[in-house]
Amino acid sequence: MSAAREAANASSRRQPVDWDAVDEELASVPAEYREYIFHPLRHVVEVFSSQDPQGLTQELRDASERLGCQLDAVVEGYHAGFARSIHNYSHILQLFGESKEQVESLKRSLADAARQLGAHSRGMGPQWRKTVSLESSLRLLADIRTVVEVPGRVDAAVGER
């Protein structure tokens, strides 16, 4: 059986996470153990100064074990999804990086094109004036040819009569 098929079968056999049990277990943890800034020394002194240090220590170990089991259930139930999400996020970051490089390359290409057009535009004005002047000269030459050909046409027309 392939590894992918085994993983698919294992994921189908997983039990869904019992969130009520997780919430119940978290609620059973005393508030002083859930403080944002945890001060372990205070709790160590409390355990050592209690009437039954071994009993209190065992309660803490049992609570830790129960929380560990709940954590294992959550990790087991959602590991594949977490891994897939992290992989997808990594792929998205990679695509953003590639897109950024492509945009930078496009900006450089556009800047080069703008520089080339700017360089060509300096020479294009005189070239346009030269083109207009040459077109005007060609029209004048065509008019002169027409005038030069008139006497020949007149002679041809008189000769036909």
UniProtKB/TrEMBL annotation:
Residues in Exocyst complex component Sec8 N-terminal domain copies: 23-156
Q: What biological processes does GO assign it?
A: Golgi to plasma membrane transport; protein targeting to membrane; protein transport; vesicle docking involved in exocytosis; vesicle tethering involved in exocytosis
Secretion signal, residue range per the UniProt entry: none
Q: Would the keyword Secreted be found if you checked this record's keyword annotation?
A: no
**GO CC list:** exocyst
Keyword annotations of the record: Exocytosis, Protein transport, Transport
Query: Can you tell me which family this protein belongs to?
Result: Belongs to the SEC8 family.
What does this protein's UniProt record list under function? Component of the exocyst complex involved in the docking of exocytic vesicles with fusion sites on the plasma membrane.
Q: What is this protein called?
A: Exocyst complex component Sec8
Taxonomic lineage from the root: Eukaryota, Viridiplantae, Chlorophyta, core chlorophytes, Chlorophyceae
